[in-house]
Amino acid sequence: MKGYTTPLGLVGAALIVAGGLAYLLDPESGSVGLINLGLGALLVVVTGILNPDLFRLYGRWLNAFWGGIMVFGIVVMVNFLGNRYADRIDLTEGQLHSVSDLAVETLKGLDREVRALAFMEGGEQVELKLLLAELETIGDRFSYEFVDPDRDPVRTEDYGIRRYNTLVLESGDKQQKITELKERQIVNALLKLTRDRQDKVYLTVGHGERRLGNEPQALGVLQARLGDIDYSVGDSLFLAREQEVPEDCAVLVVAGPRTPFFSLEVEAIRAYLAEGGAVLLLLDPLYESGLERLLSEWGVSLGDDFVIDTSGIGSLFGLDFTTPVAVSYGEHPVTAKHGGMMTFFQLSRSVQFSEKAGLEGTPLVMTSEAGWAESDLSVLESQGDHTVKLDEGVDRPGPVNLAMAVHDAAGGGRLVVFGDSDFTTNQYFDHQGNGDLVLNALSWLAEDEGLISIRPRDPGYNPIALTESDSEWIFWLSVVLYPALIALIGLMVVSSKGRWSLADLSAAGLGVVISLGIAGLVNFMGDRYNIRHDMTADQLFTLSSDTHRLIEPLQANGQYVKVKTFMGEMEGLRFQDLLEEYGYISKNFTHELIDPQKNQLQVEQNNIRERGTSIVEVIVDGKVHSERITERSEEALSNAILKALKAKDQKAYFTGGHGEAELDQVDGEGYSILKGRLKELNFAVESGIALTADVPDDATLLVVLGPKAPFAPAEVEILRRYLGGGGSALLLLDPGTATGLEGLLDEYSIELGQDFVVDLSGMGQLFGADVSVPVVINYGDHPITEQLSAGTMSFYPLVRSVRPAAHREKNLEIEALVYTHKSSWGEMDLRPIKGEGGKVEFDPQVDLRGPVSLAVAVAADADTSMVADGRSRLVVFGDAGFASNEYFSQQANGELAVNSINWLTEDEDRLKIADRQPAHNPINLIGNQGSVILWVSVFILPFAVALSGLVMVLKRGYQTYAAGFVSWLVYSFLANGLFFFVSGVVATSEGTVLAGESKLLAALASVAIGYGIHRRASWAWLPALVLSALCAGMVALTIFTGSGIGSSLIPNETVQLFYAAIFVVNAAILLWIKRVFAEVN
Amino acid sequence: MRNFAAIYSKEMRSYFVSPVAYVIAGVFLFLSGYLFRNILMQFNLWCLQFGQRAQQMGGQMPALNLNEMVVTQFFGVMDFIWLLVIPMLTMRLFAEEKKNGTIELLMTSPIRTVEVMLGKFFACFSLYSIIVGLTLVYFVILEAYGSPDWGPIFTGYMGYLFLGATFISVGILASALTENQIVAVLLTFGMLLLFWLIDWSASFAGPTAAKILHYLSFIEHLEDFQRGVIDSKDVIFYLSFTFFCLFLTTRVIESRRWRR
């Protein structure tokens, strides 16, 4: 009888625990639990009566149990408390003790009470509290309070808080709410709250200045930072139109103009400064600003140079020596806080100051001694390998001033001039001290000195600064010397055993050298003469046959193609692959990847405006023809090569005999500059051809340049045939003269206005001209105009309107290129320009209302009766003068002419090469396919391999593995018992009596069987097998049918699979080691 | 030839009778299976999320390509696992013989050093090939659920065989240099990793040096294979590298004959 008391007592104890837990989980429906509890207690009591000795034993067990509970409880408590009352001691630099300079200044300067209310979820947040507490200690006008929105709904409602973790700063009746709880945001909010001013910063436009925006070269970040502190920024100040700086302008910013300001605009700036205005000039080298005169009045002279810095610090940002890095600053409010900070200026010019009465000038930024101002600008402009060196007496030696601040104490005017604008752009704003420098300069200009400071960084900003020699030294020390030293010590220790003689060593060394040489040779040859085979289905890495035809003959023809692509190593990987493939076709094709950030010099030399630009150079007989593309595809590249290869055949013919303008004339009215540009574009120019016979077949381009007399019908017929046959023509037709071409142009849907355009916007005055010189800043959507830098002007001395007609006789595309301002019109009364009197006045009945189109571009299908296919191209301007020497290099005029010629002579037989991109080839796994893959690849395959190894090992002995399997079975059945016990408890607590009790029963059975297996008792074998089969079968059934007992037991499909697998394995093991059970009994 | 066969089968036996082969294969397959599955599921997720959009946007975003985004990715991570595993396969080849003194028996027997070396090399290479071959299952799975381009898969495996041969030759050389297996593992690992990362330093080097460093890089030559292009220069690189290491190995082993 006594033998059964132990299990009886255990069952009783288990029932007590099960019942108690079930009751605790859900006291409402706890009757079952209570019954179990009572039953368990009864069983324990019965056991006690039957076998009192057992209790003494239990007593010890209970002791141990309670001990465990206590320790567990303590651990939980410690963790809970630790979490609840977390305090952080922050040993990292710059978190606890370095509230930013700006914060300190702002708080100290507070002139009113500011109160911060933090509406935090749960009423507190440790980091914020630390920060606010730190801020509270500075000055004595800042206080804070934490509010739990859930406990204080009234105040939350009053402040209109919509979400947790909002900080409200309040002063008087003003409030600022912020949700990003960083120091910078808090300080900015403080500034907004306490500053009673709202300054406006104006950026000038119209000369290719930097704009606001998100591109790397724009000023969007500057605008955002100014906005943070309540400055507003406007970038629409077109001085040429406004003619004066607006009243509300706090600071006028001229950010990197590309074309000179007009005297009228300069006058406006001069007047503004004289009235005590503030101007920030960011003037890049190479570009004339037109402000030089004004600057000299202010004692500032701009160097016609660019600054070289050989200190090597620039290399740490991946920049070359054209980017001076400044570490020393002048004594001036702007730079007062900059000590020890770095600022850098990509391609800067020098800025000097000479004493002037009443003016107080201070240099702001200086390069190191290792810098100088290089006056040989040809280095930047020529595409060659020029080198720079400090020429005594010519170049200005370092330290060089890069910026000046000038204060007119009497008039109040303030002026800051930088020799560079890059440092303010989005790309470089957040680097080092750059952003602070420009913000501080603006603050000083706006007489808002309280804001001058070094602004807080976002946490995690932790740069390192290495010069080139530093990094070399690190390389040698860490990669070479240090390991070599260790190796040497090792060698000495080993060789002290004296196993190697000198002869042995040298023999071995010679062998290594010789075999290395052979291996090297083999690889060299292999690299030179390689065969490639593309196995991809879409032939992704095979270039088209067109490209092959283009590249293969290079070597035979003695031509070389060199492609320079301006992009980073990790950009355009597909294009890089393509370039490689080109190189495999011919050895005469080479390519070079130039990272624009590291090679600013080359970027300037080649005038690269866009990342990803490629320059294709074809070298034939020592002559170089180059093309550039921005598109990164095989089609673009092959066509560029094709065009450059063909470049030598291009011919431009100029008509003659109608009083056309003189090409070789070099004065202002001549067109020698245009001719020069044509030569640069690989054209052979022939002028003055009479249209008596057909235009020569080799004509790439026909130009009609401002004829004074009309073309005869026969000549027009020749022109018609030329165009119909796929020719390209550029017509520059001045107003006031009959051209005889109206009919021909009409066929191409071009309407040539018999008028001249009057522009009342008044900008013509800038050039000393009257209303008859329209100034254009609006361009059509066409390849010719899309490359023009935004905001650049072009202008047309005496122009007629040229616009697309409504009718279409040919299959053609037509686009207007340039539009005048809407205040202009096409004046039909031509008398004023002929000097016959008359009046310039808008007459809505007759005149053409602005905006007026001044030029059109047409591309039309060629006449099929003459040629099989091809396209005719025609560009018509209503003016020739805009391309004359006087105006060619002004503003965008020349660019417009060159672009037109480029478009007109674009190759018609462009290679059509389909871009091979990896195909769209997705996969869609549905339902349990994902888990099937998981099982096959992660479990079944590796385990099958590992198991086969196990079988090999198992062959060695039965006893050893049987013991292992027995303990595995014991553990799995005990775990199964625990699992059933827990789910039984849950079931009883939920009130499902039958399921709960049966699960508890199953738990009991499982534990009992486990015990039996442990004893290797023969009675346990069969129940174990049955239970295994039941468990596996039950769950397996659930997996396949999707419902059943299994799903209530284990909701997760994967776990079900796992569970079933375990019991299948268990059954197999039981069958296998049956012998063990028999042997014992 | 008979000698070669004898050494080869002895080495193969020692791999497959002991748990070594199974454990390495099992662990390798587990890791690579896990990675394969994750890469595939990630790709599947993208397909679900961006599938529609990718087609609409055309060139705007990279095409959802099974080969580029699963096969190439998988190859890319698998070679790194091999970098860790191969030293374990090769470490004992000669080091153990030297430690146990059995190398003297081999040296004094009429078997030529080259035969010993080749036997060991090919045994190790066979084991490697078998394990690599087992991963083909993944691509069968891919074929079942999608339609991968088998060209790059084929070349990818080719690349693996060349890469494996190179790795193993480095491992054998290291094993021949020492009688301590841990030293052999570390030497192998160090050399492999160096050649693995060597083109990293190319971005800081001069143009000519950069070219040479790029050329010496193991991955640089694997890239073409993984993309689906077979280039003779890559084949020559791997084969000559292997040959060079194996040649040095025979020299090192033979040096025992004349070293005091």
Cα radius of gyration of chain A in angstroms: 43 Å
Mean pLDDT of chain B: 84
> Helix/strand-derived class of chain B?
mainly alpha
Q: Which strand-content bin applies to the residues of chain B?
A: under 5%
Helix content of chain A: 40-55%
What's the CATH topology name of the largest domain in chain A? Rossmann fold
Tally of contiguous helical segments of chain A: 35
Seen as an oligomer or otherwise, the chain set is heterodimer
* Highest-level CATH class of the largest domain in chain A: Alpha Beta
Tally of separate helices of chain B? 12
Task: Give an account of the 3D structure.
By secondary structure, chain A is an alpha/beta fold. Chain A has seven domains: 2-84, no CATH class; 102-194, Glutaredoxin (3-Layer(aba) Sandwich), CATH 3.40.30; 216-445, Rossmann fold (3-Layer(aba) Sandwich); 462-492, no CATH class; 545-647, Glutaredoxin (3-Layer(aba) Sandwich); 650-904, Class I glutamine amidotransferase (GATase) domain (Rossmann fold, 3-Layer(aba) Sandwich), CATH 3.40.50.880; 931-1080, no CATH class. Chain A has 35 helices and 39 strands. In chain A, strands 6-5-7-8-19-18-15-12 form an eight-stranded mixed sheet, sandwiched between helices. In chain A, strands 26-25-27-28-39-38-35-32 form an eight-stranded mixed sheet. The relative contact order of chain A is 0.06. Chain B is mostly helical and 260 residues long. Chain B has one domain. Chain B is 84% helix and 1% strand. Chain B contains twelve helices and one strand, in the order αααααααααααβα. Chain B has helices spanning 2-17, 20-57, 66-90, 92-100, 102-108, 113-134, 136-145, 150-177, 181-197, 207-216, 218-227, 232-258; one strand at residues 229-231. Chain B is globular, with a radius of gyration of 21 Å. The mean pLDDT of chain B is 84. At the A-B interface, helix 16, strand 20 and helix 29 of A face helix 2, helix 3, helix 7, helix 8 and strand 1 of B.
Q: What topology does this entry show?
A:
The complex is a heterodimer of chains A (1081) and B (260).
Chain A: H1 5-25, H2 31-50, H3 53-84, H4 101-108, E1 114-119, H5 126-137, E2 142-147, H6 153-158, E3 166-171, E4 174-178, H7 183-194, E5 200-204, H8 220-228, E6 232-237, H9 239-242, E7 249-255, H10 263-274, E8 278-282, H11 292-297, E9 300-302, E10 306-309, E11 325-326, E12 328-329, E13 343-344, E14 351-353, E15 359-366, E16 371-374, H12 378-381, E17 396-397, E18 401-408, E19 414-418, H13 426-429, H14 434-445, H15 468-495, H16 502-528, E20 532-534, H17 545-551, H18 554-557, E21 559-566, H19 573-585, E22 589-594, H20 600-605, E23 613-620, E24 623-629, H21 634-646, E25 651-655, H22 672-680, E26 684-689, E27 701-705, H23 713-724, E28 728-732, H24 742-747, E29 750-752, E30 756-758, E31 775-776, E32 778-779, H25 783-786, E33 794-795, E34 802-804, E35 812-819, E36 825-827, H26 831-834, E37 848-849, E38 853-861, E39 871-877, H27 885-888, H28 893-904, H29 929-954, H30 958-989, H31 993-1014, H32 1018-1041, H33 1045-1049, H34 1053-1072, H35 1074-1080
Parallel strand pairs in A: 1-2, 5-6, 5-7, 7-8, 8-19, 21-22, 25-26, 25-27, 27-28, 28-39
Antiparallel strand pairs in A: 1-3, 3-4, 9-14, 10-16, 11-13, 12-15, 15-18, 16-17, 18-19, 21-23, 23-24, 29-34, 30-36, 31-33, 32-35, 35-38, 36-37, 38-39
Chain B: H1 2-17, H2 20-57, H3 66-90, H4 92-100, H5 102-108, H6 113-134, H7 136-145, H8 150-177, H9 181-197, H10 207-216, H11 218-227, E1 229-231, H12 232-258
Helix pairs in contact in B: 1-6, 2-3, 3-8, 3-9, 4-8, 6-8, 6-12, 8-9, 8-11, 8-12, 11-12
